[in-house]
Design a protein that fits this description.
Elements (H helix, E strand, L loop, with lengths): L1 E2 L4 E6 L2 E5 L5 E7 L1 E4 L7 E6 L2 E6 L4 E7 L1 E4 L6 E6 L2 E6 L4 E4 L1 H4 L3
Antiparallel strand pairs: 1-2, 2-3, 3-4, 5-6, 6-7, 7-8, 9-10, 10-11, 11-12
Length: 110
C-alpha cells in the first residue's frame, strides 16, 4: 500500500508491516502488525500496532511513543495532540514524546 502523503510504501515482510522509501530502503522496520498514516496534522507520523497495543513513529523509523497504548486517536480540537487510553486511564500525547494524563475527575467533567 503506497502512502502518497509521505512518499513511502507500506510493506509486509515475514508477516510484519513497515515502510520503504522510493529506493526500496526499509525506513520503518517491518516489526508491526499494522501501520497507517496518523492524519494528525504533521506529515510523516504513523500509527502502528504491535501485540494489540498502539504507538506512533516518524517516517524515518524514530519511535515517538512505543506500542503501549490500548487506543490512540487524533484529537480534532487539539493541534498536534493525540488522545490515548492505557490501562483504564486516558490523556494526550504530543508529537515530541510528551504525555499528559487526564485524571478521573477531569474525564467525568467535574
Amino acid at each position: 500500500r503506497f502512502d502518497d502523503v509521505n512518499g513511502l510504501a507500506f510493506v509486509l515482510k515475514n508477516g510484519c508491516m513497515g515502510a520503504v522509501n522510493g529506493r526500496g530502503e526499509e525506513v520503518v522496520p517491518c516489526m508491526y502488525a499494522s501501520i497507517e498514516s496518523c492524519h494528525c496534522g504533521i506529515p510523516g507520523v504513523f500509527l502502528v500496532r504491535q501485540d494489540n497495543k498502539y504507538g506512533l513513529v516518524y517516517k524515518d523509523g524514530f519511535v515517538i511513543h512505543p506500542c503501549i497504548y490500548n487506543r490512540i486517536q487524533y484529537a480534532w480540537n487539539m493541534v498536534h495532540l493525540i488522545f490515548f487510553e492505557k490501562d483504564g486511564q486516558s490523556g494526550y500525547l504530543d508529537l515530541y514524546g510528551g504525555t499528559t494524563w487526564v485524571d478521573a475527575e477531569s474525564q467525568s467533567g467535574n
